Please model this.
Amino acid sequence: MSLDAIYAPVRDDFERVNAQIHDQLNSRVPLVEHIGHYIVDSGGKRLRPLLVLLSAGALGNGGQRQATLAAVIEFLHTATLLHDDVVDTSELRRGRETANARWGNAPSVLVGDFLYARAFQMMVRLENMRVMDLLSEATGVIAEGEVLQLTNVRNPDLSETDYRNVIHSKTAMLFQAASHSAAVLAQADGATETALRDYGQHLGMAFQIVDDVLDYEGSTETMGKNVGDDLAEGKTTLPLIHAMAKGTPEDAATVRQAIRSGGPDQLGPVLAAVHNSGAIEYCRGRAAEEAEKARQCLETLPGSPHRQALYHLVDLAVQRSD
Model:
């Protein structure tokens, strides 16, 4: 199923989301609007608000309130992108300059703070304490995940379990919060709420594992970011963990040294070590496992175009090249 076909069941609701996003970017400070529009309009797929709308639609609960929730989720995500690019000193995202590369670190951080604040203002208007509790908890977990990843920069001894803890917090948590909060706002029964919560979690895990694979398999043109960025930043992701565990002693030593030193200088030998160890296949296998768990969560939902789109959204997450 194409991306357009996945969006089709919620096309009208997505127009409401886009309208709210642009309306809520208004500020009496022009730079806030400039940076906000720059990153929001940078061509992302908006998978997280899509997840809200499809989850709500699968429960027969679309409309303005779910559109507001979807906009909240997108603002939270956009704020994390602004902050992440500063922390990672990234210069390229979605095929163009990052906000920090264009305007500097301080404006990027402060506009990220504005987007967090605006997200919580919108959240209050939903007048649902469970949604507020869920999203405020998720925001804290995401921040902890980013700090956890930062504390493990240039650490070649990170285990696969530690890696999964990091990506659950920093990435999967917002996917989980998107589908879970949609179910809560729709007043779904307990079993359905749990199923959609777990669906979002497994989808997010699969998405991030594939994202980490693409750093060693993709290209700058298709990904919209520089290949090898994770290595340059000293991040120990699953392809590297597997290469160190299953590669030759020489390849493992190469990867360990590259993680410790950071920088792109050793990208060629590290790419060879990753591919020679079977790390790409291994990681895609782990992503496929998470994808299958996500699909199983959908079995409790009634048949509908929205449920079908949720099913194919999993395929999109694991089969993408950018």
Observations:
- The chain has one domain: 3-319.
- The chain has 17 helices and two strands.
- The radius of gyration is 19 Å.
- The mean pLDDT is 93.
